[in-house]
Amino acid sequence: MELWIDLHTLPERYALHQEQNLNPFRAISNHALSLIRRGENGVIWAGDGKRGGNYLYVWLRADSRLASGRRTPFLYKENMRDWLQEFPALKELTISREEVKFTMPRFSEWPINYGEDFTESDLNEFLERRLLSSEAFGAKISAASSAIDQHQLTINIRRGDYYSTPFEEIYGIDIESFVAEAITHFDHFTSIRVISDDLEWCRTHSDMFPSNLPIHFGGVTPGVFGDLAALACSSKLILPNSTFSYWGGFLSDLLSQKRNKIVVPEIHERYVDESRAWPLPAWWTRVNAISSLHSGAMPDELDD
């Protein structure tokens, strides 16, 4: 039997949860609730500050459990709305707060490690059943596959809050040096497509791309799901350290039957005590990506 995990036992790096775990009254309360909230069926409770790329991992967790006869839907959050509209099959894996009964066990969103907590088969079944079954997304896939051929290199660049305080020291990478290194792993591409949450920044830094090739900025269909479709239909991909981007890579693996090539940063996030890689397929190529805060530093300065 899988033990339920209360929402207050999330990873230690979340300071708020650390404080709650040290509260003896909270510990007593959690123990008392664990005697009431038992069983395999319950609700998956995720922390705040997450978005679609993170949510897809949790929906995958809910889908895998449902396939094995255990219903543990994901608690609805307002910023899921667009995802549920684009991918209606995810609704079966989602529950509103009003539907959550007091006695239902609360499960953590963690762990969600590729190859450990879900298999490649689990992943592909989820992609086909929950994402590729969408009529709206299918139309975007069709449009992207008609416009993107095997000779186009797609470069996905993540900006946004990764380059604001306090996230830059954790997630920020020197994009230009990473892209320059990643490009060397590809041969025989005749055009470039840039997918980003900040296309204006990409245009003003376009000297990082080969100047002798046509460059297309943006997905074939406008919007975040058009961007996801463009990643899915690309067989040559440079991805950033972003969960949204990883899902584009997963879709590309499936649709191309692994006749693709994907390059990603070696690590996903940095902390004072360690740098952490994200569990990804072994056949993806990882390359070094220095912190954006060290951009321009000499190699011997990076050890300080």
Key attributes of the depicted protein:
304 residues, two-stranded parallel ribbon, Rossmann fold, single chain, disordered C terminus, alpha/beta, 36% helix, six-stranded parallel β-sheet, globular
Structure overview:
With 304 residues, this protein is of the alpha/beta class. The chain folds into 2 domains: 7-131, no CATH class; 138-295, 3-Layer(aba) Sandwich (Rossmann fold), CATH 3.40.50. 36% of the residues lie in helices and 13% in strands. It has helices at residues 15-21, 24-36, 52-67, 81-86, 120-131, 135-147, 168-171, 175-183, 199-204, 224-232, 243-256; strands at residues 43-45, 74-75, 94-95, 106-108, 152-157, 191-196, 215-217, 236-238, 261-265, 269-270, 275-276, 285-287. Strands 7-6-5-8-9-12 form a 6-stranded parallel beta sheet, sandwiched between helices. Strands 1-4 form a two-stranded parallel ribbon. A two-stranded parallel ribbon has the order 2-3. Pfam families: Glyco_transf_11 (PF01531). One of its GO terms (molecular function) is galactoside 2-alpha-L-fucosyltransferase activity. This is Alpha-1,2-fucosyltransferase.
